[in-house]
Design goal:
The protein is α+β, with helices and mostly antiparallel strands and 105 residues long. It contains three helices and five strands; from the N terminus they run E-H-H-E-E-H-E-E.
């Protein structure tokens, strides 16, 4: 079991690709030109619990709330800077199988 804070950082290239709008994109979409910068882009708090159901199988559940910061929050197409997410997974340990379902509210 784990509960604690999270912080996410990204470089300028990733932030521009994910949250930025260049001139041609602005003309095609109607959004304003937006140059994103690198740095901290999200902070939050999460809770995770894992339960082994056999020697090789485990079930994992996660619940987190994250808030976008900086360029991610200021982007012209960011409408909800805060997001609650949840996930559950069934995992075969020592193997390559991992099934996961992710929820966003």
């Amino acid at each position: 079991m784990f509960a604690g804070p999270s912080v996410t950082f990204a470089d300028r290239q990733h932030m521009q690709t994910t949250f930025g709008v260049n001139q041609s994109q602005a003309l095609a979409s109607g959004y304003r030109v937006f140059a994103a910068h690198g740095g901290m882009n999200a902070a939050g708090f999460g809770f995770s619990v894992t339960r082994f159901i056999s020697k090789r199988w485990l079930v994992n559940g996660n619940l987190a709330v994250n808030r976008l910061l900086g360029s991610a929050s200021d982007s012209p197409f960011t409408h909800e800077p805060q997001k609650l997410t949840g996930a559950k997974a069934l995992v075969l340990t020592g193997g390559a199988l991992a099934l996961s379902v992710v929820y966003s509210w």
